[in-house]
Amino acid sequence: MRLLLRTPLPIKLESIVRSPEAVHCLGVIGFMKKLLAILFTPSLLFSQVVVNSGLTQIIDAPLGTAQTLNIALQNNSDEAKRVTFSLMDYYNDCDEGYVYVDGEEAIESSCRPWLTLENSELVLLPREKRDFSVLVNIPSNYDLPNANTCLFINNTALVDSVQKAGVVQFGVQIRYGVNIIYNNPSVQSSVDLFTQSLAIDTAGVDYAFELSLVNRGNASTTFHTKASIMDMEGNMVYENTSIRQSIQPQQCRKVLLENIDVAPGTYELVLLHEAQSGDVFGVSESITL
How far from chain centre, in Å, is Cα 147? Predict the structure, then answer.
């Protein structure tokens, strides 16, 4: 078992107060959720082209080799359907989630330049099933632990629609994103669970902590977090273990710790993230509540 301790930890104190504008915004969000529930009915979802293979494709091939990925497509409609394909780089931000980069120049950890698509678009006949192939040529000199990009599969109109004056045209086209991840076997496989930040919610009766965690390694794992809070005399005043979650390389996860009922004061916070392998990654920090 490894135990890695890191400090200090960026801490943000938050007091959540809902203004009338925020309440109005929540009402709009509730309306949009109901609207989406109506739009995304099974009849709509299954009247277009769907992806039957996994939405995460992991490549572990050696450097300097080639591999073909087959993406399984199925037209669930009784009409011919057209899909288009595009590649876009992304990175993971713990606050913003997946951030997609729309540009010709690839980011440093991108495998987009390695990929050759079978075609930029396809037309699937009614009820047709077929594979869409992506050729991956892995360079021999790549030295980073992993690389990634995203393949977007877009349902589009078979024939471009013509706008008519005074007619509002409305439709929902489903788009799938297939994450393509390369794990470099020439770099030793490792997990590195790094606590990026901690937000403390002070609005409720009890405190709530939200941790932002990123896997800086090149291997996937599952983990859980054990949090302990001790007073200045070394007495344990709070202890809790989070649910186990999965995490991929370069992916962020949130860990929420609620109902922290402690008196205002200064404490020592210890966070231990235990991976599936038994390795433990920890951080300790003095906090004032």
Answer: 15
